[in-house]
Amino acid sequence: MPSRNETAGGDPVALRSPSMCRFFAGIMRRQMRQGFRAVRLARPGLPDLPGDRPLLVYANHPSWWDPAFFILLAAEIFTDRESYGVIEAPMLEKYRFMRRIGLFGVERDPRRGGAQFLRTGERLMADPARMLWVTAQGGFADPRLRPPELQGGVARLMARCPETVALPLAVEYPFWSEKRPEALALFGTPVTHDGTEPPEALNGRLSAALDTAMGDLADRATARDPAAFTRLLAGRSGVGGIYDAWGRLRAAAQGRRYVADHMEET
Prior knowledge:
Elements: H1 4-10, H2 12-15, H3 18-35, E1 38-42, E2 55-59, H4 66-77, E3 82-88, H5 89-94, E4 103-106, H6 110-124, E5 130-135, H7 153-160, E6 165-172, E7 182-187, H8 199-223, E8 229-234, H9 241-254
Parallel strand pairs: 1-7, 2-5, 2-6, 3-4, 3-5
Antiparallel strand pairs: 1-8, 6-7
Helix pairs in contact: 3-4, 6-7, 7-8
């Protein structure tokens, strides 16, 4: 059960509103459609995951867009789970509506924030129908900086909740051949814990699994092959303005269909 202070300050389970989650997911979907050429998930997609165990998705943190990407992935792929996430407490006070979409706050102080994360995370991971999204590096980091240095919170939470399955998620936002970048994601190999491994050793395994996923995604991003991905969302195409207008006129004059992209997808 949550403590009295947690309940008074905002128990994420009690405050989470499914209708608000759906509404905000729609907003993030529109935002990403406007900001990116496409949102893509690397094939084959999700690995096999047990449905009777709680899930913790831990990701690298290259961009401001990461939380929006998580919300979109949760809405598109994990429709049978309740999603929760972490945010700095001052930001949650500023944007209090985020309590209604499953976010809970932690203090910036490492000791207090770590204790809050573990206490709330342990409550969330008690239910196999829930999942938690974490940017495990603790701050922004370029995806080319590898191996990723992870904070110890995920490993310590798994030590307390050995039923939890940790799923590494690599994300990147490269430019390919269009005006807008691509939003790319790749799920790695799940990491489990038998309850006996020290958190330090487990943290090393978590880092290695995320590093492997980041390397795989980097190779696919470099290859620029859309066939290596499933397109979850088509964004805005073309350059706009006079460039697209001229292209449309030329296509009409030649009796062909105008394609705004430089890289047409089949």
